[in-house]
Write a structure and sequence with these properties.
Blueprint (H helix, E strand, L loop, with lengths): L2 H20 L2 E7 L4 E7 L6 E4 L10 H11 L3 E4 L16 H14 L6 E6 L2 H11 L4 E7 L9 H9 L5 H7 L1 H8 L1 H12 L6 E6 L6 H15 L5 E6 L6 H4 L1 H23 L1
Parallel strand pairs: 3-4, 3-5, 5-6, 6-7, 7-8
Antiparallel strand pairs: 1-2, 2-4
Helix pairs in contact: 1-2, 2-11, 4-8, 5-8, 6-7
């Protein structure tokens, strides 16, 4: 393991331990019938914030961000492991993004969060947030999307190209890392479903892009331009370039990410309170 990654993992561990001591934390497995899903909820008040991890990551990737965010907002913070990752199980008959998003909605209700929700997503997690928000416009009130897969970049052709780049590893992945295997085999469908849903998004969104995207050459510029384009499709979206950061912006520039989450969260919370009155 690289020294930098060891440091990040260590910080995440101590962040999780410290936060657990300060706030009521629920760490639980919820039954979905054929498998269990792992959720971690930091207690608070107000609209809950749901975090969607990128491809290959589980919910613990957000741990180092949570202490500062909870101090500033005291909102419920929800992280979870998607099927096949972290502590969550996997039902190979239900690996489609539509099934996962529907199950997420059910799980949130079981946890007592069947109402409004604020979304924070990274990379592939953006596809899940897009579909969730499009299918639940009465629940999703706003979001911060960090270097996400956009429909503009992640076309059917690009999705299949990425899947093919793992062709030699698929057999071993199916046995050793089934979550990754099904992520890859469903990759084109996942991004296609998100693309079909994207035009239905109405909630305010802050889009944060990295200076050094996860792709090189011409694809790097296309990635950046697609994020900017996504951010300008509606007047209630804005784009921010996180300078000197790579794909994991929230680990390399946590202050910026926390600030933008806090700013948009407070704005939509005020709006929701005005509507309720």
């Amino acid at each position: 393991m690289k020294p930098k990654l060891i440091i990040l993992c260590t910080l995440a561990f101590f962040a999780a331990t410290r936060l657990k001591a300060q706030s009521r934390v629920i760490d639980t497995l919820l039954s979905n019938g054929s498998y269990n899903s792992h959720f971690r909820v930091i207690g608070g008040s107000g609209i809950p914030i749901l975090f969607e991890s990128g491809g290959g990551d589980d919910g613990s990737v957000w741990n180092s961000l949570l202490i500062d965010l909870h101090k500033k907002l005291s909102a419920p913070l929800i992280t979870y492991d998607r099927a096949g990752f972290g502590k969550s199980g996997l039902d190979i008959s239900k690996t489609d993004i539509v099934d996962e998003v529907q199950q997420l909605k059910i799980s949130l209700k079981k946890l007592g969060f069947g109402g409004k929700v604020f979304l924070v997503s990274h990379s592939l997690g953006g596809s899940y947030s897009i579909l969730f928000a499009a299918r639940n416009p009465d629940k999703a009130v706003g979001g911060v999307f960090i270097d996400i897969n956009t429909p503009c970049f992640m076309t059917k052709e690009k999705s299949n190209e990425i899947k093919l780049s793992y062709k030699a590893q698929l057999k071993s992945l199916k046995k050793e890392r089934p979550g990754v295997y099904y992520l890859l085999t469903n990759y084109a469908t996942t991004n296609q479903k998100a693309a079909e849903a994207a035009s239905k998004l109405r909630m305010p969104i802050t889009v944060i892009g990295s200076e050094y995207p996860p792709y090189k050459g011409a694809d790097s510029l296309i990635w950046k331009n697609c994020l900017k384009s996504f951010a300008t499709e509606r007047p209630n979206r804005r784009y921010i370039l996180a300078k000197k950061t790579g794909h994991y912006v929230f680990l390399q520039s946590p202050e910026l990410v926390v600030r933008e989450i806090v700013n948009l969260y407070k704005k939509v919370s005020r709006k929701q309170k005005a509507i309720s009155h």
